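Lab notes, practical 5.
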Amino acid sequence: MKTLYLHIGTPKTATTAIQFFCGDNETLLNAKGYAYPRFGIHYRYISEWRNAHFLIGEKSGESEQQDFEKRDQVVQECFEKIYKLFEEYDNIILSDEGLWNAGNWHDWRIWRIIQNELKKEVFTVKVIVYLRRQDEFLYSRWNQQIKTAFESAYARYARSWDEMLANVPRQMVDYYGTLKKISEFVGKENITVRKFDRKEFFGGTIYADFLNIVGLKFTDEFKIQEDIRNVSLTKNDTEIKRILNGLSENNGKYNSFFRECLTTCSREYPDDNRYNMFSKQEMRKFLSKFQEGNQKIAKEYFDSKEPLFSSEYKAKEKWTPKNPAMFEDVIRFAGSMVIELLKQNQKLKVRLDNHRMEIRKAKERLENQRKEIRKLKERLDKLEKLQKRAAQKDSDTK
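Output from the prediction step:
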């Protein structure tokens, strides 16, 4: 039986790194009997390596209203290509982090599609999902939404942390509830759950861990052509960016400039172990909502009586916008902007000087050409005079 590996996230668990890794090693995967196909469909804000997105989205340029008839046609066309690939390969890998949440928004339509394809008995499906502790997942997701506003689907996203928490759909962080629902379509035995914890990755890296799940071994043959390092903004820089997102004149171009400056600041002065968006008590209260479900996951998918996640509070204190470091971070951001502008001005000055030099050389060439033209004209004038004299001489002789 052929195998379709369906990697569904969750979001913010190195899914982009896995997708680029599979794409970069496509030829090697093919040689080992695996395909990581691209279907030639372009979606707004979606990388071509998110090759399972056809199960979710519409083509870029279409209206925001889902056209299910057109989407079903795309799904059918993609599965026809998948069946064609199965004639050559025993294993196909599809990946899209949006699949974790999308089932909830579309009445589990996606999983019904998979279930119907399984009835054809051409392949079996193996669902792969990485989980991280709910509070860490939500913060990472919110941080990314603030950071990528205007460059993704989160245009002008400026929700505060508290506003975001108040509007989180429970099913997004009810891991057990979602897994249980997915298992109704594909069977629990066909779901592989991994903790997104570098200490627990097989082979020590997300790449080795993922390959292990699909039945391959990470060796020197595999290349990491583009190591995806998604720098998260610090808590203070995220707050600065959130406020900037709300500026009425902000747009994609300005946003990229702000993001670049803030990313530079965050890279040089990270605060990973300094602040948490929750206090210790708030974190424990929040996580207690998912304790029962997380314990069921530990028992059913890891055969363990230990907690699914560590309850360690890694920060020193709860973050507030009035923290002592905010003043310095605002100055650092302002300085970073000035430095970046000066760099850009210097580049423009160099380009301007080069253009001026090219213009001067062009003028010199033009002047030299004019001189040559004048000399040529003088020669022609002399030649004409000589011709006239010779003609006149011939006439007088006759």
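Observations recorded by the TA: Confidence is low (pLDDT under 50) at residues 60-64. The beta strands are 2-7, 34-35, 91-95, 123-131, 191-195, 275-276, 317-318.
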